[in-house]
Structures are given as structure tokens and as C-alpha cells.
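for the writeup, i need someone to sanity check this before i put it in the appendix. the sequnce is what the collaborator sent (i think, or maybe the updated version? ugh). structure was predicted straight from it, no edits. if anything looks off just tell me and ill rerun, i have time this weekend
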Amino acid sequence: MNDKRLWEPLELIRTRRSTRRFAKRPVEEEKLAAVLEAGRSAPSGGNNQSTHFLVIRSRKVLDELAELAQAAFAAMEETPGMYSSLRSSVRRSKAGGYVFHYNAPVLIVTANRRDHSNNIADCACALENMMLAANGLDLGSCWINQLKWLNEEPSILALLRKHGLQEDERVYGALALGYADTPDGLPPRTPLPRTGNPVSFIDD
């Protein structure tokens, strides 16, 4: 592939990896603004542009969210066939000390209207855009599902509504964002082998 204009975005996609250990270094305003612009520029069903971005940098609010999420997960019981990451959240919460956002300095919560048929897809597009932008800006990021799993939890709804979540909105994903806690401060970028995601061609 020789077209540099095409290769650069594909390289951002190919080298995007999740960061789960973050340094305490704050994210510069310019970089945060660029990540958010990428999210706000994502496609949306019917061009509704109804995804609401709650940018949480308050350590107090982040700590409170982690405590509320841990309590909610600890009250759950494992069930047959439970999604493995949800099962892990339940087990780790029962053990104590569970921080679902990995102590990242920024948590970008994506919410949308509860009755909007494209709410999850719209938030997913925004999250992917932000993860790719973060990679291009040498920032680490990680998709966070826990608040989506708890998006009807009264205590979490009450806290988020205090900080701007609307009554008709629910959380459908979030993004932990910051500098990676690595020797060079860069996120992991070694591509993982693709062992799934098959492709089938249907030609004439």
C-alpha cells in the first residue's frame, strides 16, 4: 500500500490498543479538545447528533463513581453464560478495591436518549473516533463498558444527573483517557493478530 493518505488512518486503526495503566500526568486542553472533536464528528443515525459527552476530570467524582459501581456489581450474582468481562467486574467488586476506570485522569462518558433507536451505535462510533484520535496524539485510551451495564442503577444515575445527564438519557459507553504509565509514556501499539472476524466475499 503506497498511498500515504490512506496508510496513515489505517495505521492508526491497526496500532490502536487498549491502555489500562495510566500515569497521573494531566491531558493537555488542546489534546482533549481534539479527542472530543473527533467524537463529536462521528456519524450518527439520521444525523441526529444526540450523543452527550460528559467529560469527568474531578478526582472526587471519579472516586465516587468507582465506589458506586463497585457496590452495584458486588450486589450481583454470576449467572450461566454471563459475559466474561461483566463476570470479572462482579468478582473483582466482591473482592474489593475495584476501580473500573483504571484511575485514568479523564473519563469521557457517552450518553444518548434512551428512546433513540440508534443510541448504542451512535455512542460506539463516537468512542471509536476518540480512540483513534487518542492514538494519533500519543494518548492511551480504553473503552469502558461498566457504566453501560449499570445505566439504570439509581445511585449512578443520580450522580451523573447532578453533573448534566438529562432525565431521558442513559449511558451507552465511556472512554478512559490519559498518558500511559509506560517507560516512554506512549500507549501500547503492537498490533494483535487477527484470529477472528472472518470475511466472506459475495461476487457475481
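The chain is about 40% helix and 15% strand. The first strand starts at residue 52 and ends at 56.
thx in advance!!
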